[in-house]
Structure formats: C-alpha cells, structure tokens
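Give me structure tokens for this 166-residue protein.
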Amino acid sequence: MKYEVIDNLLEKEEFEFIKNLAMSPDIAWYWNKDINTAPGYNNNDNTSYFVHNLFNLNLDYVYSTHYKHFNLFWKKLDIKSLIRVKLNLYMRTDKLEEHNPHVDLPFEHKGCVFSFNTCDGYTKLQDGTKIESVANRALIFNAGKPHSSTSTTNVKARFNVNFNYF
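Here you go.
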C-alpha cells in the first residue's frame, strides 16, 4: 500500500468544529510515559505524550463521549471497519525529537494521521519520507509498517488524531 496525502480533507466548517473540539480544554488528556512500547524497544529516553482514546475494537469499548463527533471521517476515509481511534498531543520541545519507529498494530491495515494544527512536526514513513503536520491534512498509509512521530518546536503542542481501520 502506497501512502496518500490529502490536504483539506474536511470542509472548512467541519474542520473548525472538530479542531476546536480536539484542542479544547474539555478533552481529558492522559499521560503516556512512553511514546513507543514496541517489544524490544528501550524506553530509557525522556519522551512522553498525551492521549485521549476515543475507541478501541480490541477492548470493545467506546472510551469517550466525544467519539460520536468523529463520525464525519468515516465516509471521507472510506472506513469499512474501525479498529482504533485516538487523539495525540505531543508537547513542544526545545529540539525537534523524532521518536523511534513503531507499528500501530502488527498486521497490514490502513492508518490515518490527521493534523489539527500546522507545526514543524511530521510523520516519518519506513522509506524515510517525512509528511509535515499541516492543519486539515490526512496522511493515509499502512500503519502495520514502521513509522515515527515527532515533537514540535514552533508551537505549544502538536495535535492529531490517529485512525486504524480497514
């Protein structure tokens, strides 16, 4: 599966609504002490991030009352079966930190990283391609292949939502 970048995935009004929700103080963020928990990975670095889980099929549970607002993505991404949806918040760092590669789930499936704000952060794919974080941009790729996230240095935080699906 080749990756695809879609700019302006959402209509302006849709984007403003979902961005304001994702970046609002009403979201309960949960601190993850490790960005990468893949087997064999050494977590002795200082990286961490915040997550708001919306849905996880493996646990058969909708985590968040905000989940219903993200259904506007289903048709746009042609989601047939949803595996997981989570909001990510990477705090600003003095130096841009590229996190170690990971896979979202250990099998081939579609992943979408949708950016809520523009910053100097990016997603790095297995082949070394860097997709910049641009507001209202979707990166669709095989999330069963190694990829990396980053922090940001030029805004307070990097906000995105991660979809795993078929």
